[in-house]
Design brief:
InterPro entries: Cation_efflux, Cation_efflux_CTD, Cation_efflux_CTD_sf, Cation_efflux_TM, Cation_efflux_TMD_sf, CDF_Transporter. About 65% of the residues lie in helices and about 10% in strands. With about 300 residues, it is mainly alpha-helical. It folds into two domains: about 5-205, Cation efflux protein transmembrane domain (Alpha-lytic protease prodomain-like); about 215-310, Cation efflux protein, cytoplasmic domain (Alpha-Beta Plaits), CATH 3.30.70. Strands 1-2-3 form a three-stranded mixed beta sheet.
């Protein structure tokens, strides 16, 4: 029996959290043993991932809850708020790494960490990259943007370990190449900030009630043309709440059609949309007569044509 969305989210997040704790302890311990300040800082960064793990574990209980009287459109915005939190925290981490790199440019390291620090950094990169790819796959199964955002937090940890590995190996073999640490860290900062923007921007767009999907209107019009009983569809509006989309529009039918038949056509069309577009979970359809007063896509020109439509 497959997991429910909330169980899948929590199982994936718990696995990631356990890995974060193990890697953080490994990097801090090895960093102290080898004298690698960069590895110690990277271990502290791994502990920061626990903050987003906690946000996912708590938030998923709310955004997966069904609609109720207080939240008739569901609780999807809790996922949006979680995405904003993760995006902001990811941006702070990126800025912190970049600031430390800029501040230390030109400063020669006073210690030469052992290769044990290098292998600890490599282990972190491999584990976190595997976690990133696995979490992305799981997020796509249930279309969870928050889980996808947390996947990118895993990758940010892998990316932050990369300059550590480069710096440790460079310092070990060629002590004069200490500046590679700052250069690699700045590149990592750019990648982390890009990921933060890609998480934050859709959430901000959603909060401002922007159109959920620019392709939805074309899809609805395409489906409508396949049904000969539907004369016109217009005033299509969509909005996203978390990982789901809510949709409403006007549907025009023959003005002499019975209410019962118009209702059947509407319900069949609604079912078709819900089946074809996975993210859409609710559709509100306003039925109207296909008359000169209501039609918009192919308006009446006046004269005999208007009389024919009445």
């Amino acid at each position: 029996m497959s997991d429910t969305p909330v169980k899948l989210i929590q199982r994936v997040t718990w696995i990631g959290a356990i890995a974060n704790v193990a890697l953080a302890l490994l990097k801090i311990t090895v960093g102290k043993l080898t004298g690698s300040q960069a590895l110690i800082a990277d271990g502290v960064h791994s502990f920061s991932d626990l903050v987003t793990d906690t946000a996912i574990l708590i938030g998923s209980r709310y955004w997966t809850a069904p609609a109720d009287k207080e939240h008739p459109y569901g609780h999807g915005r809790f996922e949006t708020l979680t995405n904003i939190f993760i995006g902001v925290l990811l941006a702070i981490v990126g800025i912190g790494i970049g600031w430390n790199s800029i501040d230390s440019i030109g400063q020669e390291s006073t210690t030469t960490p052992g290769m044990l620090a290098f292998w600890a950094a490599i282990a972190s990169i491999l584990v976190k990259e595997v976690l990133y790819r696995w979490t992305v796959i799981q997020s796509k199964k249930i279309n969870s943007r928050a889980l996808y955002a947390n996947a990118w937090h895993h990758r940010s940890d892998a990316l932050s370990s990369l300059p550590v590995a480069i710096a440790v190996s460079a310092n070990y073999f060629v002590p004069d190449l200490y500046y590679l640490d700052q250069i690699a860290a700045l590149l990592v900062t750019a990648m982390i900030l890009k990921a933060a923007f890609e998480i934050l921007w859709p959430a901000i767009v959603e909060i401002t009630e922007a159109e959920a999907d620019s392709e939805i209107e074309a899809k609805i019009q395409h489906y409508a043309k396949q049904d000969s009983d539907i004369r016109e569809v217009h005033a299509i509006r969509s909005r996203r709440t978390g990982s789901i989309i809510l949709l409403d529009f006007h549907l025009l039918v023959d003005p002499v059609m019975s209410v019962d038949k118009a209702h059947t056509i509407t319900e069949n069309f609604k079912s078709h949309i819900l089946k074809q577009i996975d993210e859409v979970v609710d559709v509100i359809i306003h039925v109207e007569p296909y008359t000169c007063a209501e039609r918009l896509i192919n308006p009446c020109c006046g004269g005999d044509e208007c009389h024919d439509e009445m």
